[in-house]
Amino acid sequence: MIRSITLALGIALVAGLPFIAGNLYYLHIATMIGVYWVLIATLNLLVGFTGTLSVGHVGLLAVGAYAFCILAGTFGWNPYLALLAGGVICALLGLLLGLPSLRLPGFYFAMLTLAFGLIVSELALAEQWLTNGSVGLQAPEFPAPFNTPHGLYWLVVGIGGFITWMTWNLARFMWGRAMVALRDSTVAAQSVAVPIYRTKLIVFVFSGFSAGLAGGLYATSQSYITPDAFVVNVGIYFFVAIIIGGRGLILGPFVGAAVLAALPALVGPLAKYGTFFYGLVLLVVVLVIPGGFGELIGGLAARLRQAPHKHTSVVPDLEKLRHAITHAHDYGNARAGVALEAEKVTRRFGGLVAVDAVSLELRPGEVHGLIGPNGSGKTTLLNLISGYYSVDGGAIRLGTRELTGTGVQPRARLGIARTFQTPKLVRALSVLDNAMLGGWPDVRSGFMETAFAGPRPRREEREIRARARAMLEGIGLGDVLGRRAEVLEHTAQRFLEIARALTMRPDFILLDEPAGGLTTAEIATLGDIIGVIRDAGIGVLLVEHHTDFVFRTCDRVTTLNLGRIIAHGLPKDVSRDPEVVRVYLGA
Predict the structure, then answer these.
(1) Residues 62 and 176 grouped into a single domain
(2) What gap in Å lies between CA 342 and CA 506, rounded to an integer?
(3) CA distances from 578 to 247, 321, 566, 571, 587 (A)
(4) pTM of the full predicted structure?
(5) Residue 500: CATH number of its domain
(6) Is 104 left (phi over 0), alpha (psi -120 to 50) or beta?
């Protein structure tokens, strides 16, 4: 509630500032800030939240501006309909541009968007029959009451406020957590079934739509447009505004847009050095406050809210954890006795055979240990089972369901969760938000449904939050729910990963060296947690170097060496196997 009131007061203050000044020039600057904000608000979702670099949105702005002028001016369309049509055209361009290019690494995608901006600028100059070339086009006005400077300003504020409300909804629900996960830890996002390519494409299309709206508003605010108005520098300006304001913050980039738009007026006679001042501001921000002004303010506020940092003591409440697990989900595959099976799987890296025809069966309600010397293929096998690697031979099955050709996300949706040797957390998110990411497989709300804060995303938010909180309290992290994951001690990070996996309501959990870096007492606590998980009917595959821990925790143990199984069976039998003693346990 406080956040909402603060946001509303902030928007009201910004909307009223030009009238306090009582100057039409300042009103025009404020209008331009609002126009740019319509574009930057959703570009921030793309750049700041998903980490996808786009520096060519000026091309979409130009298309929106020309579409508005041509449709409303040349063909006489209603200006509001022409404005929406420009947004739709740019959304379709975003779809056509993103479909083939969003699979490219970030740098190449940024260069492709830059090339798109250059192409649009050149076409606007060359296709005189459509754009009137260098002479340009006159922009029509909106009907009353938006045909005056004050009226246009309020129209821009209204559209900008609506777009901001949509982005705020996306940021505060599950889609926001998923986007930040894409930016900070793609591996973590994959592990909880976030569709990486599809999410980026949807955000890119949405940002294209708002860029088209901004183009129409820009055209009418300038009264006249020419190709010179859409040079590459303008696209870089949008990107710089996000960096200055603070990426991943809803109102942070607004600060950047306001600073950069108002800078020419502030420097007065030195306006011709505007690019120099832009560069200077960016340099100062990157060197002094790399997170931007928004993150600086947010960090100070967080420090005021939170108690001084103390050591995180993880003391699980096993009964509460047992209750949270058993009430979170009736594990369908586990209850039906469906096993997760790797049958003679093989994986090669060049001439190296990392896993050689290995077969392994993980049953519901058992802990299956996987041990072996370094380089024996343990983690590779985990990556094959969870879908991070494809198999060169053999098959992966969940009961009778063939998983061999599927990736990580489909397997996560089928109830296969995992942790990692080095915890893969989303460092910028809180402990609770990290655990809530595990609820993504249950999200059925679409992107636009979430943007409009419909009843289903609200219901999913409540349910997933309650489940994640229960898991965290049971596992011993209930006192640090609001703390950022990056400040947690190693033990807490380990247990947070397990809590996130449990929030997925899995049938099977693959634990990759969860005892690494833990003390003897903490390892004992980990064993108790694994016991609770097993008792709930979940299958656990435990990869670990602490053999004493493995032999007292696991129901069955498989030993690998040089990618092959050398022993398999009960812990007491494997621990005495001569080959296991020779290659791994020692005499």
Answers:
(1) yes
(2) 18
(3) 57, 39, 10, 14, 9
(4) 0.90
(5) 3.40.50.300
(6) beta
